[in-house]
Amino acid sequence: QVQLVESGGGLVQPGGSLRLSCAASRSIVGLNAMGWYRQASGKQRELVATKINTGSTTYADSVKGRFTISRDNAKNTVYLQMNSLKPEDTAVYYCNYKGAAWNWRDYWGQGTQVTVSS
């Protein structure tokens, strides 16, 4: 089992920034991906960004150029730096982990609310 603990959500004005963090409960070995998804009210959960431990990164088109995902593999932690936030970025953000060591099963954090409003 892998438990994921998120932090860093909150209320921010349009144009502002937030940084999300997600720490895994155990050392992550082997090929794996950590990333972020979000779910706005009344909508389906969608990919925001994901990063494989070998370096490959994927972003949703809606966040390219504004969000940056990074990892500290020594700390089993993934970060999401969100700049130039827009009201449409308002959602619950979920950390995700999947890896070869766990047969590519999806693990999810509890979610953290991000609200962009003036």
What's this model, at a glance?
With 118 residues, the protein is mainly β.
> pLDDT below 50 for ≥5 consecutive residues: which ranges?
none
Quick one: how many beta strands? 11
Residues in helix, %: under 10%
Q: Biggest sheet, open or closed, and with what strands and sense? A: 7 strands, mixed
Number of helix segments? 0
What features would you describe in this structure?
The protein is an all-beta fold and 118 residues long. It has no helices and eleven strands. It has strands spanning 4-7, 10-12, 18-24, 32-39, 46-52, 57-59, 67-72, 77-82, 91-99, 107-108, 112-116. Strands 2, 4, 5, 6, 9, 10 and 11 form a seven-stranded mixed β-sheet that branches. It has a four-stranded antiparallel β-sheet with strand order 1-3-8-7, with no helix packed on it. The radius of gyration is 14 Å and the shape is globular. The mean pLDDT is 94.
Give me some keywords for this one.
0% helix; 4-stranded antiparallel beta sheet; 11 strands; 118 residues; 7-stranded mixed beta sheet; mainly beta; 51% strand; single chain
Helix and strand topology:
Elements: E1 4-7, E2 10-12, E3 18-24, E4 32-39, E5 46-52, E6 57-59, E7 67-72, E8 77-82, E9 91-99, E10 107-108, E11 112-116
